[in-house]
Amino acid sequence: MSILQRHPRYSLFTLLVIVGTMYLLATDGVPGYALRSVVTYDPSLASRVARSELVYQETLRKRQKLIERYGPTAKDIATFPPNQDPWPAYTVWDFFPPAFNCPHDLERVGDMGDGGKWTCGLSRIAQKPDCIVYSVGINYESSFEAELLERSRHCEVWGYDFTVSAFGPQITKAVKGRTHFRAYRLAGSEAPEESQFTLEALMRMNGHTHIDILKVDIESWEFETLASLIKPYIASGRPLPFGQLQLEIHLWGKKFSEFLGWWEMLEDAGLRPFMTEPNLVYQNYNKESNTELAEYSFINVKGDNIFIADPPVHQTPPDAVKFRRETV
């Protein structure tokens, strides 16, 4: 009779050890979430992106029809129509729906309420060896960055905010080693003496050529900053240097035609909105104003970023190669 038969408790203990070991390997020691151990190679990704683009192009045609209905030109459209006859049934946000389908897992990363961001394909970067995230505008709220770090193995986050001195308290010691903070201002022009830099200048400082996720919340400066960044890329035909953009838009004082032109610039550069939500926290404390703040999440459909194309084979992590060999 074996020792396991004579002592059933040994069998239970052995089983618990095996299960516990498998769990630790699956989670990679990160509490709360199991990391994906394989970089997903998705043969249907290109076709899903192409189908989503067809849907989005139809949305652009519908936008033009809506402008003609209530305009008939963009200059005739009120951002928020007044409360009077004929009470047109729209606001500015109805012209810009998130009509592009995220081709991956879609989830809100970070805390519920203020702080979380709708993200497309977090699993695509969970094991990416050179995962780079930039977060501009922090205000001591870093639940998005904290969860992203906890759910990835290699991602590093560069944070910039000239109004604070560090990331928020959500960043734990376990992941702090993969964060980098500077009290810099992101803008459309450089003024180093004022700690003001363009995105490309920050990337040069850090030795980066590509950002996987760019989060921007800079209190209406997004219009000037992104215009200065994006226009040269449109002119040259180069893809933008980031794969995904989480952006809070502050519409304070903008005319519809002005906002439309800026938004169409984003579209010309390859940015497609896949999710939005109004900032109702701001609205709750500014009840006499319109819903002028909205969060938008964009995917970049130009180039070969990780969200629209599979990585080169040589970037496959060693554990993914081992897994594939064992399952063949």
Give a description of the structure.
- The protein has 2 domains: 1-30; 45-300, 3-Layer(aba) Sandwich (Rossmann fold), CATH 3.40.50.
- The longest helix has 26 residues, at 45-70.
- With 328 residues, the chain is of the alpha/beta class.
- It contains 10 helices and 11 strands.
- α5 links the parallel β4 and β5 (179-182).
- It has a 7-stranded mixed beta sheet. A two-stranded antiparallel sheet has the order 1-2.
Roughly how much helix do the residues carry, as a percent range? 25-40%
Mean pLDDT: 88
Q: What's the architecture of the largest domain, going by CATH?
A: 3-Layer(aba) Sandwich
Any idea of the CATH class of the largest domain? Alpha Beta
Give the total of beta strands: 11
Shape: globular
Please give the largest β-sheet: 7 strands, mixed
Structural domain count: 2
Query: What's the tally of helices?
Result: 10
Query: In order across it, which strands form the biggest sheet?
Result: 5-4-3-8-9-11-10
Q: What is the string of SSEs from the N terminus onward?
A: HHHEEEHEHEEEHEHEHEHEH
Indicate the radius of gyration in whole angstroms: 23 Å
Question: Termini, distance in Å?
Answer: 37 Å
- Low-pLDDT parts are 21-32, 318-328
Organism: Neolentinus lepideus HHB14362 ss-1
InterPro entries: Methyltranfer_dom (IPR025714), METTL24 (IPR026913)
Pfam families: Methyltransf_22
Protein name: Methyltransferase domain-containing protein
